[in-house]
Design a protein that fits this description.
Subunit structure (chains A, B): Homodimer.
Protein name (chains A, B): Phosphoenolpyruvate transferase
Largest interface: A-B, 27 and 27 residues
CATH topology of one domain in chain A: Rossmann fold
Strand content of chain A: 15-25%
Oligomer: homodimer
InterPro entries (chains A, B): CofD, CofD-like_dom_sf, FbiA/CofD
Largest sheet of chain A: 7 strands, parallel
Strand order of the largest sheet of chain A: 5-2-1-9-10-13-14
CATH architecture of one domain in chain A: 3-Layer(aba) Sandwich
Structural class of chain A: alpha/beta
Catalytic activity (chains A, B): enolpyruvoyl-2-diphospho-5'-guanosine + 7,8-didemethyl-8-hydroxy-5-deazariboflavin = dehydro coenzyme F420-0 + GMP + H(+)
Order of helices and strands of chain A: EHEEEHHHHEEEHEHEHHEEEHHEHEH
Cofactor (chains A, B): Mg(2+)
């Protein structure tokens, strides 16, 4: 086939690394990324979009490689000064280079630009080689309901749960606040409708891809696109490849297994599913649920490994297309 | 006399250095500083208050000593990153440490705090040893009217005139936009009413002290306070000690001489005036205009020199009080 049009729903680190592999696997493809904005947060009066930035920095060559998020060669002068003023929070690690991104974004939003236009402007510098769209221009904030020490319940911002609390308190519910009223950002539904294939990278199925799918219209557009939808399991051997996806899977009543995540997406949405070779015994269960399944190595140890995974996902898509 | 209550109207560098001397000269005095906010500017969506910060950093021990403004040990990572995004202006030198101040200020203003409360919060860190009040919580922006290349006129923000254009185009007018509608910040009129002496440091008489006096109520309160009002000439030997005060003096039709500046303030406001020893021949002219005048060294070469100047100003105030 000619130039493929690929739509990818992406969270942060896992999505970004998969996308880097995908670009290497199909350098001529036209890739549109629909990024999660549910973990966006206002810090120090600035709008921070961790997932969009991780994709942008990773594909644009500015990422802190080992850490997976934030900028390479980062310094922390502003953060130290804010601490000297007694201004928090101190648990979110914003570096000086990163601050500049949030300052530009906040200034543009304050001037009336929607997040999609702001993201495009930021990408004019980073040239990520994909079209990066926020899932929505509206404000959606993922909250996690946890148990308090006195036995009550309270909702905290996803970043507070994830970064400050290290996902230690059991999550009782995950709520994408504002999602029901949100509209897909300009270009999202059109990209889905024109896609040749739609991919779910090994991103968090609840707080990353799940949040994107919670924006009314996006799940339906994907299900109705009439093109192969293929996902890659973020769970390998019963635990998340990275991050703490198992914590939030429990909150939505889904077992932390490759098969259970496939079933959570469901055959109404998903046509193909890649599990890791260590989870090969899950293949029959997934296929019995009506989702084509293959077991291949799913550890993104480097860009080549990610490229091979992307190639496998596209091969499975062609197989599904039949 | 016991603990003196001193009110000082201050611009940036000159005011800050004078205040450092004043604190040394009368360590037990209760000093209230009414700071100019007419050169405040929004940069990158952040509210920057150059004069208030110069006073705060200088008295709090954080100033870049040689430069006279900005922070010591400063780095410029954020500014470089903003430039990489193509976001300007590039002519205003905000360092990383300084950015933190503006981030805190902007966040507090966004949360609804008036500038006076924000300034107090920032000073809780810097402990300047004076009560630092903005002249007003309302927005006042000093604009300078200049001639354009095609012979027309246009108004530019004071910082653009001062920093970007280095005061090169002749200033035709100086307009403190918003001053007429501004109210003195809480505490300003009360401090003036309770003062034992009021001082005008060798700050810019037009864009610093002149702007403060343009806030309705402040000039009147000073004139009616019934206590000595003593100023120090920013003009020594026919030119400004530092800065480009002569440029904006011309715009208001005032000659750049020590005597002309005293006359510009006028005997209705000013009781005493210090000129530099090189301007000793101006003393009779100033006194003939009804303002007590002495010639003393007015170069703030170090803190001790500034302290001696402050001491001379207070001595002249006592002489005026009679």
């Amino acid at each position: 086939m000619g130039m493929q049009r690929i739509v990818v729903l992406a969270g942060g680190i896992g999505g970004a690394r998969f996308l880097r592999g995908l670009k290497k696997a199909v350098p001529d493809a036209e890739i549109t990324v629909v990024g999660n904005t549910g973990d966006d947060i206002h810090l120090f009066g600035l709008k921070v979009c961790p997932d969009l930035d991780t994709v942008m920095y990773t594909l644009g060559g500015g990422i802190h490689e080992e850490q997976g998020w934030g900028r390479a060669d980062e310094t922390f002068t502003v953060k130290e000064e804010l601490a000297a003023y007694g201004v928090g929070p101190d648990w979110f690690g914003l570096g000086d280079r990163d601050f500049a991104t949030h300052i530009v974004r906040t200034q543009m939003i304050g001037a009336g630009y929607p997040l999609s236009a702001v993201t495009e402007a930021l990408c004019a510098r980073w040239k990520p080689g994909v079209r990066l769209l926020p899932m929505t221009d509206d404000r959606v904030e993922t909250h996690v309901v946890i148990e308090t020490e006195d036995g009550g319940r309270k909702a905290v911002h996803f970043q507070e749960y994830w970064v400050r609390l290290r996902a230690a308190p059991p999550a009782q519910a995950v709520v994408p606040v504002g999602a029901e009223q949100a509209k897909p950002a300009p270009g999202v539904l059109d990209a889905v409708a024109r896609a040749d294939v739609i991919l779910f990278p090994p991103s968090n199925p609840v707080v990353s891809i799940g949040t994107i799918l919670a924006v009314p219209g996006i799940r339906e557009a994907i299900a109705d696109a009439g093109v192969p939808v293929v996902g890659l399991s973020p769970i390998v051997g019963g635990s998340p490849v990275r991050g703490m996806a198992d914590k939030v899977l429990a909150a939505v009543g889904v077992e932390a297994t490759a098969a259970a995540v496939a079933a959570h997406y469901g055959s109404g949405l998903l046509d193909g599913w890649l599990v890791d070779t260590v989870d090969a015994d899950a293949v029959p269960e997934v296929e019995a649920a009506g989702i084509r399944c293959r077991a291949v190595p799913l550890l993104m140890t480097d860009v080549d490994a990610a490229a091979r995974m992307a190639g496998e996902a596209l091969a499975l898509a062609e197989e599904v297309r039949g």
